[in-house]
Amino acid sequence: MLTFDLDRFKAINDGFGHAAGDVVLRGVATALASTLRAGDVPARFGGEEFVALLPDTSLAAAREVAERLRTAIRASVPHPAGPDSMVTVSIGIAPVGEGEPELALLVALAAADAALYRAKQAGRDRVEVAEPDGPAAMRPAA
Length: 142
Fold this sequence. Notes:
CATH class: Alpha Beta
Radius of gyration: 15 Å
Number of helices: 4
CATH superfamily: Reverse transcriptase/Diguanylate cyclase domain
Distance between the termini: 25 Å
CATH topology: Alpha-Beta Plaits
């Protein structure tokens, strides 16, 4: 699972207006469509937040997809400030574990979100993978 959001998107909306923000979001949708593979499931999760499920994908392959997506957004999504500015994205990755599907997805979402937070804290415009002993490692008591 990937979770990602646009870096400094609020500044785009505040500085250039919501119409400019909408242009950026449409550009991200186009980058998603051209980057994700058949069978991957993207979703807009909120404002500038997105989730993508990558079924039957190793963490290494998920990282490759995430890096391609990060690069595609930087290269193809127009920034309203002009060509000297870039739209960037921070991405968190976590595996979806075994067990009850709804719980497994919620645990993976929490882990991917924690990895996304680390990506933001480390300077943005990067990909981080969930810690092996982080939220994804938590399992309900038997």
